[in-house]
Amino acid sequence: MVKTHQAHAVLVAGDVFDSPNPPAEAEALFEEITAELTEEGQRPVICIAGNHDSPERIDARRTWGSRQGILMIGTLEGTIPSRLGRAELLDLGNGLVEIHHPDWSIPLRLLLSPYFSPYRMPSADQSFVDWLQQSWKKALESAPVSSADTPTVMLTHAYVGLDSYVPELEEDPEEKSLKIGGAQIIPLGAFPKGLSYVALGHIHRAKVFEGDFLIGYSGSPLQYSFDDLEREKGVLLIELQAENEIKVFHQKIALFDDSSMKPLLFQKRVTSYKEAQEAVIYYQDHFLKLIWGGPKALSPEEISWLKDRHERLFIEEGIFTREALLHDSQAPQESRFFSLEEAFRAYYIQTNKGKEPSDLLMEVFREVLRKAQSA
């Protein structure tokens, strides 16, 4: 797609990896893909850290990347390279850079704002949003005056909303939440004036907000959770012209087979070992998540048989029902099955005199569960 549309640059708005300590296979795949995108330094690729990434790990790749045309920004600390493949890179300070490429008719300014946790703020005297606004304003106002033809694009990883407590879009169910307590929801009106476009990362669905300037989530190019059943994925193609004229196109990527319309990620509830066996054979071409709801847990031998026949299989043993957990009684078989997250919530309520677990505790549980399932 990058070659088809002759894209001048590629922006990656965070979540370069799925975890702070990605496996070697993920790192090798990242290097292979970015090397193909840059075409030996012809096309700049700019990546910032998201909430899944280790900022320091992203920064550690900065020297490696600059020689190939890849700019890696985990934090705003450290030295910004002067070259980015064939392009010249000017560090204007406070996360603002300017790219000059011999094949471009105009330069491009980028305000880089990688994910930053509120818990790492240098001072608690102001709100997180106010602190971000001051940082962005300082970057733009302290930089040399640019030509009227020079567009300024902001690249950030954030969860935006109408205000600090009302998110504009729901986060994906398996996403690491940024909305706990509302502390990390960035109001749409918080972004500084004078920008041409804001490229957002975090939400896996495409969405463009219109206002004084366009603000857009490109969404993910692939499905990244079993709950993501959207039939269309894609990327946003941004066309910047002189005098800040801008056009945004959503370039769709076909993720489904036209004949079967089956998603690449599929989850199926099963209540018997026979159903589980049939599912792993039928869904061979997909990543499959089996939600087990049988009367007793699968045996180690049964799990081994299933995994030997499906290399992309995940098993979630949600075997308890809401009634059984909350009332400590034999629940009817027709009751709906619990996921492990629901089971934990119900167990917590039962053992804490009806008290609901906090959002923070549930996020910690989801993180532990993700690591256990990927082990």
Can you walk through the features of this model?
By secondary structure, this protein is α/β, with parallel strands linked by helices. The protein has 2 domains: 10-254, Purple Acid Phosphatase, chain A, domain 2 (4-Layer Sandwich); 265-374. It is built from 9 helices and 18 strands. The protein has helices at residues 24-38, 55-59, 62-66, 128-142, 273-282, 300-308, 322-327, 340-351, 359-374, and strands at 10-13, 45-48, 70-73, 83-84, 87-93, 96-100, 108-113, 152-157, 159-161, 185-187, 197-201, 207-209, 214-217, 232-240, 246-254, 265-270, 287-292, 313-316. The protein has an 8-stranded mixed β-sheet with strand order 4-5-6-7-8-11-13-12, with helices on one face. The protein has a 3-stranded parallel β-sheet with strand order 1-2-3. A 3-stranded parallel β-sheet has the order 16-17-18, with helices on one face. The longest helix has 16 residues, at 359-374.
CATH architecture of the largest domain: 4-Layer Sandwich
How is the main sheet built? 8 strands, mixed
| Poorly predicted runs of 5 or more residues | 257-262, 319-336
Q: Could you say how many structural domains there are in total?
A: 2
What share of the residues lie within helices? 10-25%
Mean pLDDT score, rounded?
81
Over all CA atoms, what is the radius of gyration? 23 Å
Portion in beta strands:
15-25%
The oligomeric state of the chains shown is single chain
